[in-house]
Amino acid sequence: MSAPTAPRATPEPCPAVLPEPPAAPARRPALDWRLRFAALSLIWGFSFLLIKVGTDAYAPFQVTLGRLLSGTAVLAVVMAVKRERLPRSARTWGHLAVAAFFLNALPFSLFAYAELSIPSTLAGICNATSPLWGMALSLVALSEDRPTRRRVAGLGLGFLGVLTVLGAWQGFSGLDFSGTAMALLASLSYPVGWIYVRRTLAGSGASTLALTGSQLFLGTVQLAVVTPLFTTAPGGFPVLPTLAVVALGALGTGLAVLLQYGLVNEVGPTTAQMVTYFIPVIATAAGVAVLGERLSWNTPVGALVVLAGAALTQSRRRA
Question: Using an 8 Å Cβ cutoff, are 61 and 112 in contact?
């Protein structure tokens, strides 16, 4: 499950006073990008299982708050080590607060509430519809994304896959509408946030890491305000659900953001975003193997159709 970051800003040019020595070659990461890609796929794929385990003992808002606290702590440590500066503009902080709501606080909470009544496998598959929502919204909100036959066909194919997953031909029998609607709304929230980020935070002058850490911090503050209003303090801290929430934040939010940040820098956003297509596969396998969730034939078939449609909407015709 994706935890998206703000786009990297173009650094300000430095005045050329003296000729500088040739730049040293960039140090290659210790792990090959393919291994980090696989790790990111596993981390985000297992996030839906961790949410399900966390909600066994904690309220959904508490799961989300714990997740954001752990994720923010990881990024805070990295920012301190790298001596990253926080954004100074009040305007930037205002935009980050909106981004934190749509990219973190809202979707994380919706997925947690959704998994009270739907399997983690279905939540993972609903997450895969995010590129479809993004393409549909970008056709309206972003003038540079022009509709093409290929992208419109991918959008139609993707939503046909959604209907297959939900069992539309049998009247959506046995489907929990509220839980499924929340999971789909969470998937819609991501592209809404991304479009907002692209319109407001591009060229802000801050690094991606600083923007992301600040965004997670603001999301944590938002949940810290809301959670006491709708929940009561937990009676205890069971080991397994507590570890699941901590891992969900430290790995599924904090470490995952750093892995994604490195992949985008090394292999580009097009290759890095391919991780989206592995998440529902891993989420489904984890839900069935670990949690014993049942799987009917239309779920994996529909998921494959959704992924094919999403891939088609993201493809570009070669020159």
Answer: yes
